[in-house]
Specification:
It is built from 26 helices and 16 strands. It is an alpha+beta fold.
Length: 673
Amino acid sequence: MCGLHILGCLDHNNKSFSTRVWCPLMKQLYCHLVVAEEFNTLEFRFKMADNTPRSSDGNSRYKHRPERYSLSQALELLELMGDDNSEVEDLSDIDDLVGDTDYQPPQQVPSSSEEDSSGCEDPIPQPSQPTRGRKRHRDEYEGYRSDRDIARSQPSRRHSRTQQDAADVSDNVPEETTPGPSHQEQVKEGRGMRWRASPLTPNQAQFEHEEETVQNRENWTPLDYIEQYIDKDLMKMIADCSNATSLSRSGAPLNTSTDEIYHFFGACILMSCVPYPAIRMYWSKTTKLPAITEKFTRDRFFRLRRSIKVLIDDDVPEDLRECDKFWKVRPFLNRILKGCKSQARPQCVSIDEQMIPFTGACPWRQYLPMKPNPVGMKNFVCATADGIVLDFDIYQGADALLEQVEQPGDLGLGGLVIDRLSQTLHPNTNIYCDRFFTSIQVMEHMMKKQMHVTGTVMKNRVNAAVQKLPTDKTMKKDGRGTSAQVTTEDGKICVVKWYDNKPVLMMSSVHAREPEDNCQRWNKKLKQYVTISRPNIIREYNSKMGGVDLADRMMSYYRMSGRTKKWTLRMLMHFTDLALSNSWLLYRKDLTVCGTLKKNIMQFLEFRMEVAMTFLAQHANDSSDFSEEDDPVVLFQGKKRPVKAVPHVSFRRRANAHLPEMGDRNCYTAFHT
């Protein structure tokens, strides 16, 4: 304390204060006398009736006891020093609060800003329980607060003054964004919306259905259905690109034709209908298929399979290669996509992800462990409830989707996919999706486009709504079939929670809990079906959401899954399967609408084999295409002689039957007789 060394203690018997004072610095003691809060710091006790003075045997905190002075003697000494002319710096001119013994602290009048924000003030520390004895001495020493005590109270005053100044400045300066969750983040989690238990009031207009063209497809054959996706122009383009690429790379002409490309795809389809463990077995003498072996040899098939191209690589510019990872098969994908977009758009569609199984090297191979085929390329698909694919987009990253969406805003990946695949849909369409795509932002974004989304939703995306709904434990206690609903304040979005085997959380802008119906569910304990109530949103979701899964299931039955290390060939085979699945589903739908008996409708396997045999029998007699007669290798090859098969080893080593015979003459018998 500015050169003042104080060793203080308390005479507990007479409650007197004693100090050891250096005379040259007594005037500083006048300015820096510690009275009130300094006693707390030095842990002085003004009243401890039961305590006795400490002994000086070393257990005391201060071993050397100074001479004791009473408080009155200390004050008299300070008054006598008022006229002292020592060399110590005179500090009497300093405006100190302790200079006047009659000084009373002024009462602070709180300002209007402080009254409004009284909670921002630093609270005055209240005395603890053991220090209540000091209260009777507080009034006595109120006027002797030191500069150190005043400095301690300044941060609190500065803090309140700073807040007051900030409040005054905030009236003139535009309000800045404060750190914390933004509005988009609050809407994303549902915290910026008010939820209440009220009915849903969807704003949906009448959907305008397209005119069905079933009459135009009345006499269609399976070839007519498949030509919506794979036509002669596509086959001719593949033949031309394959010939040009093979000639430029290896120098040897491929000499394929449009008919041979038809035969190649027909053979691949037939192989998927009659699968063998190895492709070479189709040309084996014991397991060969004449429909395939009569069209081309085994080596010719493998050469076509290795050299097939859908474009000329040198004609693709570098910028297109960088922005499109699947540019090598893009013309084929565009032709399949054109056939998908030509289908009629119904009122209800589903959007989900699909895996293209492939384990080789690929620029955008994905791994989804919960899928039946976890490794491959991810394809986002929009399909009808009947399983007919209407649109698709192969995943290449969120940046590729941003380029295809006009106003992405703050949509995530799921929202970008829904916006991209809904571009060809009509207004007032109902879209069904799973929890990967569903969020409040997607709901509001699609309602601006006059479309409505229904799907399961994650709890962390609707936190505010989940808090208004019953807990899982409560619903489990109430039993299966229990449901609850909350809607937004404007009544446009609702969240429904239904408890079956587990709690299910649904969100929609068009379907709600009412009207409920009953459904059958299996009970493991009773080992029988039980009847429980089911909300309307659950029924609509179950009936409309399975379109993409149905298409996947149809493709998995007879997949063209020959082993290959080329992702381009894998893509061609997958989307050929997609075209066949779409064609058969549309064929079955047309015949069902026409009232054809179910037994007269071809099954999917029959349909595929019919298309395969039609492709294998294709012969266009196009003089501009190459044919086998023009191939110099075929011209000089000549006709092969029939070769007698070698007898089995058991027959060749049996007695003398392996010896040569010359007509009726037996050399072995003639030689040994």
